[in-house]
Amino acid sequence: MKNSRLEQLLERSANALEELLIWTRATSFPLVQEIINGEFAGEDEAARTRALVYALTDGARSTREITETIGGTLKHVAIAALQQKWRRMGLAAAVNPDSKRPKTKALFDLSDFDIEVNMSAGNASTKSKKQPQTATSNNDESEAHNEG
């Protein structure tokens, strides 16, 4: 009887944790989107390179392999510095952190934030699917309709 009660308690706890995770993800999405856009959205070469490196940060590739994949535009030490920054920001996590050579894994898929990363034939690029709108631009549009 004691084991049955313990199992029920564990099951209820697991269900509660799953529900908390769902709500946490849902309520955190706007903030994460802002952070992701700040780091990776943009038409400048630096933003495109960061997005590409992030997309390649899969927990399996080493920084040297990523350097090779992107055609050497960033040295492996620069990639390691970016990955360390992303771990501190909560955008990535260490894989096997106790290993002699731990790797890093991106925690988000940039396509979920409307950032496309093209990795075909070493000619990688990024493209934002839609432009973010600010409250100011929405108000300007409303005022233009009211005046016309």
What keywords describe this structure?
mainly alpha, 4 strands, 5 helices, 148 residues, globular, two-stranded antiparallel sheet, disordered C terminus
Strands, helices and their partners?
Elements lengths: L1 H39 L4 H12 L6 H7 L6 H14 L2 E4 L7 E4 L8 E4 L6 E4 L6 H13 L1
Antiparallel strand pairs: 1-2, 3-4
Helix pairs in contact: 3-4
How does this structure look, described?
The protein is mostly helical and 148 residues long. It has 5 helices and 4 strands, in the order ααααββββα. It has a two-stranded antiparallel ribbon. The chain has a two-stranded antiparallel ribbon with strand order 3-4. It starts with a helix and ends with a helix. Strand 1 and strand 2 form a beta hairpin. It has helices spanning 2-40, 45-56, 63-69, 76-89, 135-147; strands at residues 92-95, 103-106, 115-118, 125-128. The radius of gyration is 21 Å and the shape is globular. The chain has one domain (2-131).
> How much of the sequence is in beta strands?
5-15%
Number of strands: 4
Helicity, as a percent range: 55-70%
Overall mean pLDDT score?
83
Rg, alpha carbons:
21 Å
Order of helices and strands: HHHHEEEEH
- Poorly predicted parts: 121-125, 130-148
The biggest sheet amounts to: 2 strands, antiparallel
The secondary-structure class comes to mainly alpha
Biggest sheet, spatial arrangement of strands: 1-2
